[in-house]
């Protein structure tokens, strides 16, 4: 299922927009020091054990980013700004950020459950499969339109033939 990302000025990540699956999140600039700074902030939060906003944000980004294509989609949506260079390095940095890190208080659990319910519901899942299977290229769309037009013309011809007799 396709998902849209939008930038947000506020750190209330992610806010769920009704109607279409859209996540709003603050812009993250990935450079050579991003991983170091985030790891230190995570260690600080884990040490004091209070609110885990940075840890939850890093965990959520780690769940969203698995491949270079995920980084490319976030860059296209202007949620990530990659100063490292390659998307592969950025994906590796995001994936290695929270490995083997226990999060006892995931701040975005309600939003994540809503996202999971939305993603696994019947219609969005089947519409995404339909688009992926039958409308993945322009030629399949052209073939569908031509088939529908041919079917409509055949029905019209049949009606005129039956009425003429």
Task: List key phrases describing it.
165 residues; mainly alpha; three-stranded mixed β-sheet; two-stranded parallel ribbon; 7 helices; 10% strand; membrane; DUF247_pln; transmembrane; transmembrane helix
Question: Would you write up a description of this structure?
Answer:
The strands form 2 sheets. A 3-stranded mixed sheet has the order 1-3-2, with helices on one face. Strands 4-5 form a two-stranded parallel sheet. By secondary structure, the protein is mainly alpha-helical. The radius of gyration is 23 Å and the shape is elongated. It is 59% helix and 10% strand. Pfam families: DUF247.
- On the 0 to 100 scale, the average pLDDT is 83
Strand line-up of the largest beta sheet: 1-3-2
Identify low-pLDDT runs: 11-16
The level of helicity is: 55-70%
Cα-atom Rg, whole angstroms?
A: 23 Å
Strand content: 5-15%
Give the topology string: H per helix, E per strand.
EEEEHHHEHHHH
Structural class: mainly alpha
Question: Biggest sheet, open or closed, and with what strands and sense?
Answer: 3 strands, mixed
> Helical stretch count?
7
State the separation between the terminal residues, measured CA to CA: 51 Å
Shape descriptor: elongated
Brief overview, please?
This protein has 165 residues and is mostly helical. It has helices spanning 34-48, 53-64, 68-76, 87-96, 109-120, 122-134, 138-164, and strands at residues 4-7, 15-16, 22-25, 28-30, 80-82.
């Amino acid at each position: 299922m396709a998902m849209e990302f939008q930038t947000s000025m506020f750190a209330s990540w992610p806010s769920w927009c009704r109607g279409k699956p859209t996540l709003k999140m603050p812009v993250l600039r990935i450079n050579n020091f991003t991983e170091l700074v985030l790891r230190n902030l995570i260690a600080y939060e884990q040490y004091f054990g209070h609110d885990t906003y940075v840890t939850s944000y890093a965990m959520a980004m780690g769940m969203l980013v698995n491949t270079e294509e995920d980084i490319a989609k976030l860059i296209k949506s202007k949620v990530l700004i990659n100063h490292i260079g390659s998307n592969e390095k950025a994906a590796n940095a995001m994936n290695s950020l929270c490995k083997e890190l226990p999060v006892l208080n995931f701040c975005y659990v309600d939003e994540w459950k809503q996202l999971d319910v939305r993603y696994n519901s019947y219609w969005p899942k089947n519409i995404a499969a339909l688009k992926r299977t039958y409308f993945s290229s322009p030629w399949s769309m052209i073939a569908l339109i031509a088939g529908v037009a041919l079917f409509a013309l055949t029905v019209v011809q049949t009606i005129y033939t039956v009425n003429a007799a």
